[in-house]
Specification:
Helix content: 40-55%
Number of domains: 2
Number of strands: 8
CATH architecture of the largest domain: 3-Layer(aba) Sandwich
CATH topology of the largest domain: Rossmann fold
Largest sheet: 6 strands, mixed
Distance between the termini: 69 Å
């Protein structure tokens, strides 16, 4: 019995040593496409950033092809109306959305990996990129918040991908992140499962509230999400922030599908 236990432990130690040796001798595989990760020379600054923010390396391997594919729109093409299909009597028809990348190619492949594969390290990279793009575009605010998940979705996934992106973005922008400002008052269905504006509006209507512990009067707030399609979720989150006294709200997402552009940047 003892010998068997020692044998299992010994094999485990050998396997662990072999894995560490192979990782040292050969680059890891790209977290997104699985090819050989050959972009480590471009990651030194990001690793330093992760060490300062999280206290440990990112644990992320990525190839040059995927990294190069994360090229944003031109600066003047990153601004959109929050809602892809504006509706009558919208209380905030000019609500702006900052969205630097299209939901296609690498981003379309990576987002399900984050949400359903629990790849937080990819979300962290995307958040850092989002923050870098916004900083280069001189975007500033008093506070950054993220779209909260429902309790059911949080329990299912174990983490909030919008939070994982907002924290590094806030750190790069030098803007305080406040995770307890917004909360979901009720669970909602996935917007992607619903058809038509009316169903999607009804699904998120009144879903978000601002904590009574916060006074947002006159503050400029950025509310972040990972991906935006119709924009109803971000729009409803922004509405809650405005109703709580925020002076100005900007919606931001790493990527999305959008045709209607906002003529006036934030």
């Amino acid at each position: 019995m003892t010998g068997s236990y020692m044998l299992r432990g010994g094999v485990s130690l050998v396997s662990s040593f072999l894995k560490e040796t192979l990782n040292y001798m050969f680059p890891g595989c790209c977290a997104i496409c699985g090819r050989l990760a050959d972009a480590s020379d471009r990651f030194s600054q990001y690793e330093d950033f992760c060490e300062k923010l999280y206290g440990h390396p990112s644990g992320l391997h990525i190839c040059g092809k995927c990294l190069s594919s994360l090229a944003p729109y031109e600066s003047d093409s990153r601004w959109f109306l929050c809602l892809s299909n504006p509706y009558k009597d919208d209380p905030f028809p000019g609500l702006a959305l900052y969205m630097p990348l299209a939901y296609e190619g690498v981003t379309k492949r990576a987002m399900p990996m984050i949400k359903f594969g629990k790849r937080r390290e990819i979300a962290g990279l995307f958040g850092a990129l989002l923050g870098t793009f916004m900083k280069n575009d001189s975007i500033c605010a008093d506070l950054i918040v993220s779209v909260p998940l429902s309790e059911a979705r949080m329990k299912e996934r174990g983490f909030n991908q919008a939070y994982e992106m907002a924290v590094p973005a806030a750190a790069i922008l030098g803007i305080p992140y406040a995770g307890d400002v917004l909360y979901r008052e009720r669970n909602t269905s996935r917007q992607t499962e619903l058809k038509g504006n009316n169903a999607r509006i009804a699904n998120v209507s009144g879903a978000f509230k601002v904590s009574e512990e916060w006074d947002l009067t006159g503050l400029t707030v950025i509310v972040m999400d990972d991906v935006v399609t119709t924009g109803f979720t971000l729009h409803e989150a922004a509405t809650a922030l405005y109703e709580a006294g925020a002076g100005k709200v900007l919606c931001a997402a790493f990527a999305g599908n959008r045709q209607v552009k906002n003529a006036e940047p934030y």
